Amino acid sequence: MSEPSNKEVTLAIRIDTARHTQLTWIADLRKRSLKAECFAAVDAWIEAAKNDPDLMARANAARAAIEAEAQARQAAIANLFTVAPPPPPDHQDDSPAITMADAESEPADEAVTSEGEPSQGGRRSRGRRGGQQAEGGQADS
Description:
By secondary structure, this protein is mostly helical. About 45% of the residues lie in helices and about 0% in strands. The protein has helices spanning about 15-30, 35-50, 55-80, 100-105.
């Protein structure tokens, strides 16, 4: 797994006073610091985990999933420029597909009202768009 390094991470935990008192007494009796006693406890817990068959089965399953994902990514990279993409599926309907952008866009030859505004064709105005300004408004610069 991971090798010991010179870097340390600060881990702050909250424990109840009874556990703290017991751990402090154990450290005093062993003539070690509280930090050393905590490290010994963590190391013992890690060693016990290494011998837990259920945990090892989970670790092996996680390793297999990581390896499968890595192989899939490697294949994708290897085929990035060598394999032609599949052709688009044939549509049974020959009519052109209408996208939301097409449905919302306004026709190029719009009618203009007497105020010089484009006609909304019975629709309410959707407010300012792009560079259009409100009446009497100034353009931001």
